[in-house]
Amino acid sequence: MNPRVAQTVAAVVLVALIAFPFVAPTATYEHTVLLLAFLVAIQAISWNIISGFAGYVSLGHSVFLGIGAYTAGILSTRWNVHPLALAPLAGVVAVVVALLVGSVVLRAKGPAFVIITIAMLLLFQVLTINLPELTNGSDGITLELPAWGRDVGNIPFYFMFLGLMVVTFGFSAWIRRTKFGTGLVAIREDEGKAAAIGIPTTLYKNLAYAASAFFIGVAGAVYAYFLTFLNPLGAFNILTSVTIVLAALVGGRGTLWGPVVGAFIVSFASEAATVYGGGSQSRLLLFGLALVIIVLFLPDGLLPTLQRRLAKRREVEYTDHAGAMDHRPAEVGTREPIKPQPGPLLELRDVHKAFGGLKAVNGVDLAVPAGSITALIGPNGSGKTTLFNLITGTGGTHTGEIWFDGHRIDGLSPWLRAHHGLGRTFQVTRLFKSMTVLENVVAPLESFSPRVLASGAVAGHEADRARDLLSFVGLGRFENERAGALSYGQQKLVELAQVLMLEPRMVLLDEPAGGVNPGLVDRMAGIIRAANRQGVTFLVVEHNIPMVLDLCDPVFVLARGEVIASGPPGVIRHDPAVLDAYLGEVTA
Amino acid sequence: MTQALQTIALGLLIGGVYALMAAGLTLVFGIMNIVNVAQGAFLVLIAMLTWKAWQLTGLDPILLALATTPLMFGLGWLLYRLVVVRVRGTTPAMSMLLTFGIALTIEGLLNLTAGNYFRSATPSYFAQSFHIGSIVLPKAQVYGCLAALLVLGLLYLVLNRTWTGRAIRATAQNPSGAALVGISASSVAALSFAIGTATAGTGGSILSVLYPFFPASHYEWIARLLGIIVLGGMGSLRGAWVGAIILGLAETITATYGSPRWATLVFYAVILLVLLVRPHGLFGTRLREDVAT
């Protein structure tokens, strides 16, 4: 959907929603149906921040509604404060709970998070039942009645929820536009890669989870006042959670408008089913079936599916030939070394790594001179990529020491290593395929400070620099294409531009010429040389031996996890041990 | 002292039943990386069917497992072939959403057809007990545990002594390797899913005697089972055993010395604690794929 069309439609609908209670002040039933739809929308939009943008599905997200509602309910009766005055506090309590739980599970990928979110909802049910001193147990809490007269009905709540929905949407839209938002999408697409380009993934996920809790907590307090009665099973309701998930899925998970559209569809459908289709008894069955059907047949949601149908994608002819790309020199620029250290830039000391009984890396000592293009070659399975993973921090535990630029870096997270100026590319390119080329190149974080979170995703000097780097690798005119649409060789170049965005002192290249059109290999070598002249040190794993011998000095040869030879290319070329390793060992 | 022994005996008895129920869940996760959230709903569905059959025919509820187990095997096989297979290869979250949808569908169906109130099958031995010294062992608990151990033993034999079992274990360890030596991944997946749900067949029939249940009981049951396999290590059968015994004991001890209303909380506490301290559980492979390590 064209953003401008979407905005116009949204503005018209919003005006209509604001006008409605003035036009029809006595339509209390319609007001109530709508305000409950707003409530679903508030939750679905919030859910979308952690589960849509960042891809961590929460199945118990209504727990924050219950937490907000109970915060208002408990405190308003104890402190004798108006429940609405407690709404911000209710939001804060929800955030605190999210941070506590998130700090435990969000260090992880995989099913742990989903399990915890269900468990949390059920846990709060049990807790509110089991702690009657605090919550009045199963009997529930009764709040004061709304102060306004009967004649206004639910209109004040209507506007409160409408306002909250608009604010929540604005918050979500703002997040999506920031660097923080791009970081979340990067995590969804490829978490390991996101860490490798300097994104502090654990922190981002926790912030996203907290952000997804706040407005639901606030809405919970308003909801408590609206209901005037709270009980454990109603406040921590599994069906509410399912409604949230359904709404976001129907509309389009991860999109900006999807959760809003989905919330209205699901709310109205559920209301219609209750009125015309057998009452609320059948709602559970209908929601269950709907969830199954949507996961099976409409996993992307309505908006993205419609968008694909409507927009006939313009087909662009892509080519790997150098002539199809523009050439412009660019400043690659590396950050100044904080304190220049004598000796090698990267040094490995007696590094061992075993997978069970297999010694993948066995006592490697290796020093990469500052300013060099160093090669690491060796037959398949000799431990090259494992060594790369250890250096960049994705390879797991190992023994030995890794020093970079005078700092010992083993034990640091991948993103901290990236912030030190250590970048890498991958053997099989790992771009964020749904982002544009330009978004990919601006995604890296060369350093992290809280200010980064709020800065625009594609803005200012960063975008300029990204465009320069894209020109530098010759792909300037592809900046608005989806990265997934590019050819393999072009993706390798984009990945190189991406890693140069880190202003790295050193780049690890994993098979830069692997699977690339021969015409592009020379270009790749040229780019590496040019970046090297501007101060970037390279460590290259490559099977294209002519390219290695031409480009690199010194060359390290790895076989069976050990360095069997090292030296200038001229020497390596004739080393019998190297020939042996490549051509097979002579059996006695 | 007697009370302690009594508590431990009851904990072990219920642990055996939990072990069977959890074995199916962990097997499915180990082989296809799917957390079947509907396992709890399958248990309650079968408990309801068992209860109905017992009402109509007077047959022993636990013996009815002879019928319900193959029934769940068939249902699981069909469900995999028709529905679950479509989410293979997507994210674990999508498969969890799917099985969650299946669970809700079952709960909704039970609500509409059977009504939203507690039931329990009460065969003649329901209120009787074996007395060993001063320890009282309710007959229902003993029979239930024996039936569960029998089926677990069968499962063990199938997995360790048959070609099919080897194929399943091979696929769990290395799917592509298994495919290369001629094991059809889709047949193994369908088979394991069916075996996983079949354990809910036996488990559900036993449940109908041991615990009162109603349609929404499945949340409590899936929480129990998840607690067990998270503790044992997801995907590990041995872990399911050990986790079930530990949590069976922990639940019974909490109920005896603390209060029954806090007993269910043991499972949530375990889920949180284990994921915090030792995310891969006692015997599991890494559940929490830490990015940093």
From TrEMBL, chain A:
The chain crosses the membrane at residues 31-50, 62-79, 85-106, 113-135, 155-175, 207-226, 232-250, 257-278, 284-303. Its main location: membrane. PANTHER family: CONSERVED COMPONENT OF ABC TRANSPORTER FOR NATURAL AMINO ACIDS (PTHR45772:SF9), CONSERVED COMPONENT OF ABC TRANSPORTER FOR NATURAL AMINO ACIDS-RELATED (PTHR45772). GO terms for molecular function: ATP binding. It is a multi-pass membrane protein. PROSITE patterns: ABC_TRANSPORTER_1 (PS00211), ABC_TRANSPORTER_2 (PS50893). The keyword RNA-binding does not apply. This is Lipopolysaccharide export system ATP-binding protein LptB. Residues 346-585 form the ABC transporter domain. Keywords: ATP-binding, Cell membrane, Membrane, Nucleotide-binding, Transmembrane, Transmembrane helix, Transport. InterPro entries: AAA+_ATPase, ABC_AA/LPS_Transport, ABC_transp_permease, ABC_transporter-like_ATP-bd, ABC_transporter-like_CS, BCA_ABC_TP_C, LivM-like, P-loop_NTPase.
Automatic annotation (TrEMBL), chain B:
InterPro entries: ABC_transp_permease, BCAA_transport_permease. It is found in: Cell membrane. The chain crosses the membrane at residues 29-51, 63-83, 95-119, 140-159, 190-213, 225-250, 262-278. It is a multi-pass membrane protein. Keywords: Amino-acid transport, Cell membrane, Membrane, Transmembrane, Transmembrane helix, Transport. It holds the Pfam family BPD_transp_2. This is Branched-chain amino acid ABC transporter permease. It comes from Kibdelosporangium persicum. The keyword Acetylation does not apply. Belongs to the binding-protein-dependent transport system permease family. LivHM subfamily. The lineage of its organism: Bacteria, Bacillati, Actinomycetota, Actinomycetes, Pseudonocardiales.
